[in-house]
Amino acid sequence: MKKLHFQYQLNITLDSEINHHYFSLKCLPKTDKGQTVLQVKTKLNADYYSISQDSFSNKMIYGYKEQPHQNLNIYVEGKVETHRYPYNDDHLLSIYKLPTKYTQICDEMLSLLKDYHDCTEFEIAQDLMSQIYHYMTYEKNITNTNTTASEAFKLKKGVCQDYTQIMLSLLRYLKIPCRYVAGIMENEQYTHAWVEAYLNNQWYGFDPTNDKCVDDMYIVFARGRDAKDTLVNKGIYFGNSQSEKHEVKIVVEECYD
C-alpha cells in the first residue's frame, strides 16, 4: 500500500479557432477496490463542466466551450492511496471475455502461444507479458488510436496501447477474461496502459510495455474492453481546424503525509 501524489496536465492547442466545443475527458481516478482517492481538484478553462460516469463506471468530465478559442487546458491534482492486487470484482466480467474490433487475434500472434498444460493461469499471463515485451519494439508515431492489435503485431512496433491490446487478444483467445486499463504511473511522461486479467476469481495487473506486474505505483483512470473505451480526450467542435497539438505533463510520486 502506498500514498501517491499526482498531477495531470493536458493542454490542447488547435491550429485555428473553433467554437461550440463539446468534450468528455477520462483523467480522474475513482475509489474502488484497488485504490482510494483521498483528495482531488480539477481546473478547466471551459464555460461549463461537470463530472459523471460512463457505462464502465469510469469517472469522466464532460462540458463545453461556446466562444471561439484555440485551446483547452485541463489540470487534475490529488492524492491516492493504492492497494493494487489481487482483488475480486466481477463487474461486467462476461463482456471482458469477448474480442473486440481492436483485439481480434491473427494467425501470426499464435506463434507466441506455448504448451501451457502444466501452467497456472497466472504463469500463462506472465509468460505472454514477457514474450510481447521482447517481441515488440517501443516506438512512437508508428501507430494511432485506430490501430488494431493484429496491425501492431505485424509491425512489431508500437506504444503501450498496442502492447496491451495484443496481450488482451491472446488472453481472450485462451478464454481468460481481461480488460484494458488506462492511467498513470511513476516515471512516465504520458498516460499509460496495461492489462488486468481475471485469474482464479481475482484481478491481477500486467504491464507488457515494461514486462512487470503492476504494483502500487500505478493510478487507474479508466477501464474498458480496449483503448477506445478509455480515451482520455474525446470531443466535437465546429470550425476549420485541421490539426491538434497535445502537451501532457504528468507527475506521480510517493508522499508520506
Question: Can you tell me about this structure?
Answer:
- The model has no long low-confidence stretch (mean pLDDT 95).
- Helix 1 (121-135) runs antiparallel to helix 3 and helix 2 (149-155) packs across helix 3 (160-173).
- The chain has helices spanning 121-135, 149-155, 160-173, and strands at 2-25, 35-44, 48-53, 59-65, 69-82, 137-138, 157-158, 178-185, 192-199, 202-207, 212-213, 218-224, 233-239, 244-254.
- The protein folds into two domains: 2-83 and 232-254, Immunoglobulin-like, CATH 2.60.40; 95-228, Roll (C8orf32 fold).
- The chain is mainly β.
- The strands form three sheets. Strands 1, 2, 3, 4, 5, 13 and 14 form a seven-stranded antiparallel beta sheet that branches. A five-stranded antiparallel beta sheet has the order 11-10-9-8-12, with helices on one face. The protein has a two-stranded parallel ribbon with strand order 6-7.
List the helices and strands and how they pair.
Layout: E1 2-25, E2 35-44, E3 48-53, E4 59-65, E5 69-82, H1 121-135, E6 137-138, H2 149-155, E7 157-158, H3 160-173, E8 178-185, E9 192-199, E10 202-207, E11 212-213, E12 218-224, E13 233-239, E14 244-254
Parallel strand pairs: 6-7
Antiparallel strand pairs: 1-4, 1-5, 1-13, 1-14, 2-5, 3-4, 8-9, 8-12, 9-10, 10-11
Helix pairs in contact: 1-3, 2-3
